[in-house]
Known about the structure:
Distance between the termini: 39 Å
Structural class: alpha+beta
Largest sheet: 4 strands, mixed
Order of helices and strands: EHHEEEHHEHEEEEHEHEEEHEEHEEEEH
Shape: elongated
Amino acid sequence: MKQKLHIHLDPIGGISGDMFISAMLDAEPNLKRNVKTISEKIIKDIKITIKKKSNQHISGTKFNVDLISTKHNHHRSFYDIKKLIEESPLNIEVKEIAINIFQILAKAESQVHGVSLKNVSFHEIGAWDSIIDNIIAAYIINNIVNKYEVTWSCANVPIGKGLVKTAHGLLSIPAPATAILLKNIPIIDDGIAGERITPTGAAILSFLKPLPNISSSGIGNLKIYKQGIGIGTKDFKTIPNILRVLIFKEAKPSVKNTLKEVVSEIIFDIDDQSPEDLALSLDTIAQKEGTIDIVQKPILGKKGRVTININILCKVEKTEELIEMIFNETSTLGVRHSIKGRYILNRKITKISHFNIKQTKRPSGKITKKVESDNLKNYSYKNRKAIKNKIENN
């Protein structure tokens, strides 16, 4: 059984094919020699450079492809590129990934230009440096998935703004094909101009199908295994133009018999909704998938008003859905959100008679039992106490 690995992409400056390669090689420098060998097998008239470089005082790796000869035509069809990859000496898994990424690009281009796949012609992306970027990215991805059970996630991608010069003239950023590829990728506008994500970068993301955040990986306890910094070509005044990758491995909990997980905490205050109505709203929210816990307490708010402070824990991936529900179900005008870590004891539910028993093992090794309170609601206080003592102390 393969060890689980999670890789998180943090596109601070953006993402392109060479930035992805640079970041991964920075994290896995043992792949550098093979990368150069593979590139030379595809075409002789190129020079591959992999070197340490800094951007805005952040040190990382820069991968670059330079053409030694100008005899190569930059205009190629998807099927030309597909044939080139198929006839190369690469192993079959790398070929499949590389062709898959190019096909993702070709489908986006065919949609933009209204032509069939066989009539798609690549211009900038058909240049040799882009072909090499794509193939090397495929090699790196294949190298990792052969060794580990891998999940990917990606922080919001900066959309950029302005115009970009293409073979079709000046186009708005993101370019039409890039926008199609970003369809299911969370984006952010950080106000910084320029092409922040290239078609190759967008195609790689589309192929990887990254989760929206690290906690969605499905791996319980994580530890940072490696970090890689990929340096981009452009220089921005206010931020480093880098792509960071964080590689996580599964870690054993630091406290025995516990699971450490990441959750969302949502906090808001209510001072203008009746207690009866608020109770109904919170009960509706409690039924929402992903809600873990709701706690409310009275506080003294602004203007001396008695206010209800509400704290909700939920699954990270359900945060936005839950916040939308809070705004629809309560009178609050704003919420505060943060990511928290929590330790929980592993537990299991057993049954004794018609009672559900929650059983857990403490770090000391002691096993404790508790009757589910809903099973006791039709009993008197005296009988509830007797039932609990009998089951929990058995």
